Amino acid sequence: MKASIKDVAREANVSMSTVSRVMNKNYPVKEETKIRVEKAVEKLNFSPNILARSLICQNTKTIGILVPSIDNFFFPTVIKAIEYELKINGYSIYLCDTGNNATEEIKYVKSLMGRQVDGIIVIDPKTENMKNGFYEAASKDVPLVSINGYNDNINCNFVLNDEASGARQAMLYLLELGHKNIIFVRGKESYSYDIKENVYNEFMEENKLNYHKNIINIGEGNSYETVDGTMNIMRKELENLQTPIAIFACNDLMALGVLNACKIMNFNVPKDVSIIGFDNICISNMVEPKITTVDQNMYLLGESASKMLLQLIENKNHEVCRLKLKTQLIIRNSCSNI
Amino acid sequence: MKASIKDVAREANVSMSTVSRVMNKNYPVKEETKIRVEKAVEKLNFSPNILARSLICQNTKTIGILVPSIDNFFFPTVIKAIEYELKINGYSIYLCDTGNNATEEIKYVKSLMGRQVDGIIVIDPKTENMKNGFYEAASKDVPLVSINGYNDNINCNFVLNDEASGARQAMLYLLELGHKNIIFVRGKESYSYDIKENVYNEFMEENKLNYHKNIINIGEGNSYETVDGTMNIMRKELENLQTPIAIFACNDLMALGVLNACKIMNFNVPKDVSIIGFDNICISNMVEPKITTVDQNMYLLGESASKMLLQLIENKNHEVCRLKLKTQLIIRNSCSNI
Fold first, then answer.
1. Which of A115, A134, A139, A267 to substitute to test the interface with B, most B CBs within 10 Å?
2. I need a labelling partner for B315 at 20 to 30 A (CA). Which of A44, A79, A324, B194 fits?
């Protein structure tokens, strides 16, 4: 049986309110008494009932985290940062895996509100729930921060990556290496791929490379199957291409698929084919050759969102915040000059 | 402002107890009234206060999950399974990242008890907290299931992988391919590596291959740096080895490190060097050649632990359970016969 505050009081031979004072550190208690209570707490393995305290204090010291899939290369690092940052501030986190499903997202947010969370962080929310006003409405009821996601004219708190600037860095790097024949590899519908494709189109136009424009859509772009899916499509594409070429892939999973296709087709990376990815997931640094990519600040994203949320809680949710993080080109071994 | 049950009652023009009946579905209510209440709930975005209900019902419908690191190839899949299985049974999960630290583990368990969780699942607990009796004591206070971890004569509930049998399958496979010169690659202290090393030693002895025994310890075995760490050590080792050889690595990160070393040294995998890993993390299926490995049932581990925990909660924690899951050899392209 779990020990109660009564058991601790009996063990330490003090009153229950003395135990409470020691636990909450809110009233002075004689050092000798304090030690006796602490020993009793230790001996009986007592933990105070945070639940009962929550009802009285009107805060639960809990935060809900929504994520499209915990089983992914990108999100675990974001969550690790959130968990750490919130823990050191006395909060526990509820983890909710929405399976990238808009209806599940709504259900989870409502369930979290029912659990009286002090705030919510939603990672990569579904575009439709941003556009239909669900998150704007929820943000009025509870402090809520969105990490990435659709944000044009949306009145929510955001921590965002500057993906457009990252895409431009990648393109500029390839151009500086002398590449003109630059192929763009993306997945099916996603706000993030659209941003990058816009940059690609603008960049090719600005540099008068329109005749080289080549956009390849590999379908499902963010699952474990993406690597093989990209490889299969790129094998066929590579048959008809004149090397040297450069390939800018919308994420590292696609970049890895391109790399594998090159291996099978006996193209040398980076001599024949230069490859640049996006995200800087750990795997891009674990293969041979290591993949040049654009760092998405996964840890910093989580940390910044947590800090923003804590500030919103502190300020009673009386402001709307937006923070855009810079991306950074990570040069490794998958690109070379012509 | 969040809507209260009072607001809903006013909106639907019914009493608060009628709203409560509709929400809890515990008393019959006229269909027409039910629809009116549901509309009001929808309109006001009302969520019932689960917290208050928890204090009355003596259960919180929350489960705590402890994990050495969420930012890892192995654990996210386990957690995904747990989250899903518990969600469909009406539970929310608290996620706790212990940073693989024994003191943090204890702190988290105490904090979870303070939050009155209905149960705890601990993934890969620290051996010292098993040996010093901490988990045995905690298991008496709250339903608790451990996934893997030290378990010799420990009176806790366990879901385990049969790692010994998996290691034997791997060794047998290499032997059947004609390999005698089999090198064992492990990391520094870990109960899991010890189990596999025992099997390796026994197997080499049984098959009179003692003169080929070669155990290489690559140090830190379970971090993102493991791949490069293993590669650096194996590059030097490969210089002095007569191919063809086979390498049995304790996990897929080490196996990948060996694969990269072979690439750099221009050894062909699998013709010169056969490599077999362990775990079947997704990355083993994403590189070229794809790595033959032993599947650890990551999803099934999480699912089984959740089901066991739910049963313990149902049965008031009146039993001690132990479940050992079979491992399975996954044959891909990194091993060949001599």
1. A115
2. A44
Q: Is residue A335 part of a domain?
A: no
Q: Are residues A307 and A283 in the same domain?
A: no
**B260 vs A contacts (CB less than 8 Å):** 286-288
- Domain holding A188, by residue range, is 163-295
B265-275 pLDDT per residue, tens: 999 999 999 99
Looking at A65-190, list the stretches that DSSP marks H as alpha helix, in order from N- to C-terminal side: 75-87, 102-114, 127-131, 134-141, 163-176
pLDDT for residue B1 is more than 60 = no
Contact A97 B77 (CB under 8 A): no
Q: Does B76 contact A83 at a Cβ distance shorter than 8 Å?
A: no
Distance CA B102, CA A34 (A): 26
pLDDT of A247 reads 98
- A195 and A114 in a single domain? The answer is no
Nearest chain A residue to B52, by CA: A55
On whether both B99 and B12 belong to a single domain, the answer is no
Reported as a single tens digit per residue, the pLDDT across A65-121 is 999 989 888 899 999 999 999 999 999 999 999 998 999 999 999 999 989 999 999
Contacts of B103 (CB under 8 A, 6+ apart): none
Q: Is 60 exceeded by the pLDDT of residue B82?
A: yes
Name the 3-class secondary structure at A111.
Answer: helix
pTM over 0.90: no
Q: What is the secondary structure of B175-207 as a DSSP string?
A: HHTT---EEEEE-SS-HHHHHHHHHHHHHHHHT
